[in-house]
Amino acid sequence: MEEFNTLMSFVPNLESTSVLQLGVNQDLTQALINNKVSKVVVVDSDQQKLNAVKSQSSKNVQFLDQNMNQINLNNQKFDFVFFNSLLLNSTDEQFVQVIANALNSLTNGGYLFFRESCIGSSQSSRTPITLIDLVQAKEHEENGKRYGFDLVFAKPNRSFSSNEQNADKVSFLFKKIELENHHGFKTLKEFMDHKQYSRNGVLRYEKIFGEGFVSTGGIDTTLEFLEQLDLKPNQKVLDVGCGIGGGNFLMADVGFFDFKLN
Question: How, if at all, do strands 169-178 and 106-117 pair?
Answer without folding.
Answer: antiparallel
